[in-house]
Amino acid sequence: MLPPPPFETHVVDNQPPPFAERDLWHDDLALQQSLQREGAQAFAGAVQHYGLLAGGELYRIGFDANRQRPLLRTHDAQGNRIDTVDFHPAYHRLMATAKTRGVAGLSWRSAQPGAHVARAALSYLHHQAEAGTSCPLTMTHAAVPVLRQEPALVEWADKAAAPFYDARDLPIGDKPGITVGMGMTEKQGGSDVRSNTTLATPLAGEGEYSLVGHKWFFSAPMSDGWLVLAQAPGGLSCFLMPRRLACGRRNNFHLMRLKDKLGDWANASSEVEFCGAWARRVGEEGRGVATIIEMVMLTRLDCMLGSAAQMRMALVQALHHARHRRSFGKLLVEHPLMANVLSDLAIESEAATTLAMRVARAVDGAPQDAHEAAFARIGTAIGKFWICKRAPGFVNEAQECLGGAGYVEESMLPRLYRQAPLNSIWEGSGNVQCLDVLRALQREPETRVALRAELQQVAGRNDDYDRALEVALRQLQDAELTQADARALVSDIAVLLQAAALLRADSPLAALYAQSRLPRAAGVYGVLQAATPFADVLQRALPQA
After folding, report:
1. Coil, helix or strand for 498?
2. Is 419 helix (H, G, I), strand (E, B) or coil?
3. Is the pTM above the cut of 0.70?
4. Mean residue pLDDT across the chain
C-alpha cells in the first residue's frame, strides 16, 4: 500500500458518524409509550412510518430549506403586482410530505378516538426534522374548527384538512388541498389585539366586508387564505381573507416585506397592507377573539409540541456526539460530569414530551368530557409557558456538549438554537400565558377543579411530589392571586404538573425528576445526585443495540 501523499497533514479521526439515517420513532421510548397511554395506539403504524421519514429524507432536506431563505417578489417583469414568495424546492417537499401524512389534518379526517394525539405525535416528529414548515402546518390544522363555524366556508375547512398540498397560486375551487395562515397583530398592538385599527366595512353581500389596514406579522404569506382580526361596526371581528377570489382575481393586499428573523428561516413571515381586500366574516361581529380562540388554543398546543421536539432533537444530537467522541482517554459519555448533564437533559426532555402528549389527549377528549376540556384549557397555557421557556437554555446546554462543533452550521444545533426562542414568543409571550392562567383560575372555576384533580390523582406515589403538592394546593386555594406573582405560581405548578405526568406514565425517570426539580427546577443542568444511574437514563433516552 502506498504511503499518503506528502502534503496530507492529518488523518480524520475521533469524529462521530453522521446523525441520519435514524428512526425517530424507534429511538423515542417516551413517545411510543405516550401514544399508547393517551389512546392513539391505533395510529401507531402511521406515526412509526413518519418517524422513518423525519429521521431520513426530511432531516436531510431540512438543511436545504433553511440554507436558501424565502424570497419576496412584489412585481413581475412587466411591472404587474404579484406578491408571491419563492421557496427552495425542499420547502415544498417538506410541506407535501407533511400534509399528505396527516400533520395538518389527521385530527379532523378521523373520528376515531386518539386522532388528536396521533396528529400531535406526527407534528412532534416533523418539527424535529424541520421547524419552519411547522408554522403553516399548525395554522392550517388549527384553522379548521374556526372555518367550520361558518356554513359558507365548508369547502375551506374540508380542503384545509385534506391530505393534499398544492403550492399553485389559484382559487381554492381549482385545488384539492389548501393551507391557511393568520394575521392578528399590528404595529401598535402586538398581543393587545383589541387595539387593532384595521377597518372592516360591510359590503352588499351577506357576511362580506372590505378590509383596509395592516398586519405587522402576517404568517405564511403564500397561504390560500388567512384568518384575520379587524374592527367591524360591531367591534373586533374575525374574517377569512382569501388570496384569490372565486373569479380568479388576486385579492387587494400588498406584501410589504418579509421579516428578517433570528431563525425560522425556511418559513416566510411578512408585513401586509390591506387595500380594500375582500373578506368573509366568521362568527358574529364583535366576537372576533372568541371566534378565533379555538385556533389559538390549538396553535399553543403546537408551540408546546414544537419546543418539546426541539429539546428532543438537541438531546439526541448531543448524546450521539458524546457516544462517539473521545477526550482524555475515554468517550465523552463516560465522563461522570458529562453523563450528569446528558441525563439531566434526558429527564427534562421526557417530561416535556410526556406533558405535551397528555395535553393532546385532553384536547382529543374535550368534546365529550368536561374534565378533559377544562384541563386542556389550563394545561395548554401552563405547558406553553413552561416548556417553551425551558427550550432555549436546554438547546444551549446540548450545544455545549458538542463544543465548537455545536456552533458550526454543519451541525443542526445552530438552527435549533435560533429556533428555540420562537415558541415562547409566538401565540402569546410568557407574561401573556401566565396572565391567562391567572384569568382562568379566577374566572373559570372548572379549570381550578380540573388542575387540582390532575395533580391529586398521583398523590401518594412519591414523597418529594407529595410535599410539593401540599404547597401547591394551598396556592390554588388563594382567591387573591396577584399578577406580580404569576410567573412564580405558574412555574411551580408547571414543574409539579410535569412530575404528575411522569408519575401517571410510570416513567422510570419520574422519581429522578421529582427529586431534582421539586419544589422548583434548578437553574442549570448537570446537578443530579452522583448516585443517579446515568447509564440507565441515557439508554432510555437513546437506546443502543
Report:
1. helix
2. helix
3. yes
4. 95
